[in-house]
Write a structure and sequence with these properties.
heterodimer, A: alpha/beta, Rossmann fold, four-stranded antiparallel beta sheet, B: 235 residues, mainly alpha, MetI-like fold, 10 helices
């Protein structure tokens, strides 16, 4: 039976949604407009703790925007993001970390990149030293710790980016196509880091175009089309038997230009923790 | 043409002889210029970083003003500082007119906008790259400015050197507020102007050679820094 990872209102009976663990992070009616165009259109998203949620869809369907909205990097045009039932604030964002498709390396050494992330989070002294050592160990960058981060290979930079994000101790880790331009060995290394993070209790939200990676790393899947949720469910179910035409066409490698799916019906019987039953 | 080479030879002789007057003038020039550049950096680096990194109402206007101030006419700056420091001016009681301090003030006013405007551009470009990562890490405003200035340090050294180049070659403002008083406020540029008018071309040319050498050294320094930054992957 399918579980709705995101868009809990869309497909599942209310009782089903209420049986699930309370979402750690929720987006309600998220919309995002830019240049007079609606790029994200009324997405309801619930990220449950300790799950691995994969976000898939064709290019330009709003996957990265959805991650940025949930992480609080951009403000929704409409809707709101809740962290443990309350509006996402500074404290909430500190419970999250994000790894970008193109890793952002500060112009300093590998170790200093990690140190900076910890310092701005107010982590100092022996704890910072311990976390630095752990991050270097985790990313297997011992020999490169004092090298400028920007001279590392793409794979090494991405390992550093993941290790730096995890060093901050996030409860949710967002990853936006972290292996998009990496070779198989580097991809495997990143996947190992993600797997270890999940095993240590970190909730994972991953954007990927790689169905193999989605199967290896994902529990739940949200498929987007034209800024809306086209389909949700467990990864294997959606990938093996897609219900939506958008997901089916994408999996078959067909260009799907049909209009976006009709928006899910109103959220009757779905409880918004801030507003009560709507 | 023979006259030129003869005068150049005599000028080089003055330099090699370590002429005390020449050394005094070069020393004062460096003291005034380096102090002005340092003060301009203290003002211009954070100002440029703030304008480059943070959106605020009037940011575009601030950018336009900073860029426009890069072209401040030195004689106008000299005139304004003169009016401020003269006996009838608001800062007259400080008795700074015709002192090296007055020259430092004038040069700081000329160089600070250059440092600020170039810093703004450097920081804005870098912040565009860092912005999402900073937001993700919840980096506060102060930490942002410090991190951006530190990570752009090689480019900003180039900015400081550009300010130094402008200040050390400046004559209009320092001659107005300094007065070109021998052994007090006489610097290289004002001396070149004075000695040329007096026909003492050896000293003028000797100072010209020193000034040109400084310009070459500044440019060599800039290139070396850039190369070093590229090697360190910090550019």
């Amino acid at each position: 039976m399918r579980e709705a990872a995101l868009d809990m209102s869309a497909r599942e009976p209310a009782s089903r949604a209420e049986d699930s663990p309370a979402p750690l992070l929720q987006g309600w009616g998220l919309c995002f407009d830019a240049g007079g165009k609606r790029l994200v259109d009324r997405i309801d998203a619930g990220i449950r703790p300790r799950r691995r949620t994969v976000v898939m869809g064709a290019n330009g369907t709003g996957k990265s925007l959805l991650l940025r909205l949930l992480h609080g990097l951009i403000r929704p045009t409409a809707g709101e993001v809740l962290w443990q039932g309350r509006p996402l604030d500074r404290e909430g964002r500190r419970g999250q970390a994000m790894v970008f498709q193109r890793p952002v390396m500060l112009r300093r050494s590998v170790l200093a990149n990690i140190r900076f992330a910890l310092a701005v989070r107010g982590i100092g002294g022996s704890e910072r030293a311990a976390r630095e050592a752990e991050a270097i160990e985790r990313a297997r960058l011992h020999d490169l710790a004092k090298r400028p981060a920007r001279v590392l290979s793409g794979g090494e930079q991405q390992r550093l980016a993941v290790a730096r994000a995890l060093a901050c101790g996030p409860r949710v880790l967002f990853l936006d196509e972290p292996t998009a331009s990496l070779d198989p060995a580097s991809t495997h290394a990143i996947e190992e880091l993600i797997r270890e993070a999940h095993e240590s209790g970190v909730t994972i939200v991953l954007v990927t175009h790689d169905t193999g990676q989605a199967r290896r790393l994902g529990d739940d899947l949200i498929f987007l089309h034209a800024g809306r949720v086209a389909e949700t469910g467990q990864v294997s179910e959606v990938l093996d038997a897609p219900r939506s035409e958008a997901a089916r066409a994408w999996l078959e490698g067909r260009l799907y230009l049909d209009p976006p799916p009709r928006h899910p019906p109103p959220r009757r019987n779905v409880r918004n923790p801030r507003r009560g039953t709507s | 043409m023979d006259g030129f080479w003869r005068i150049l030879g005599e000028a080089v002789g003055l330099i090699l002889a370590w002429d005390p007057d020449l050394i005094e003038i070069i020393g004062l020039s460096l003291r005034v210029t380096l102090t002005a550049v340092a003060v301009a950096c203290v003002i211009g680096l954070p100002l440029g970083a703030v304008v480059g990194a943070f959106p605020f109402p009037g940011r575009t206007a601030a950018t336009v003003v900073l860029n426009a101030l890069m072209g401040l006419p030195p004689v106008v700056v000299g005139l304004i500082v003169y009016l401020m420091l003269s006996a009838a001016g608001p800062l007259g009681p400080l008795d700074l007119l015709y002192t090296p301090t007055a020259m430092i003030i004038a040069q700081t006013i000329i160089v600070a906008p250059i440092v600020a405007a170039l810093t703004r551009q450097v920081v804005e470009d870098l912040h565009r790259e860092y912005a999402e990562q900073f937001s993700s890490l919840e980096v506060g405003p102060f930490d942002r400015v410090v991190a951006l200035l530190w990570d752009a340090r090689y480019s900003l050294l180039t900015v400081a050197l550009a300010g130094f180049g402008r200040a050390v070659a400046e004559v209009g403002a320092v001659i107005i507020v300094g007065g070109n008083i021998n052994h007090v406020t006489r610097v290289m540029t004002t001396t070149i102007a004075l000695e040329t008018s007096k026909g003492n071309l050896q000293l003028a040319l000797a100072l010209g050679v020193v000034l040109l050498s400084m310009a070459v050294m500044v440019n060599a320094g800039v290139m070396a820094l850039r190369a070093s930054a590229v090697r360190a992957a910090c550019a």
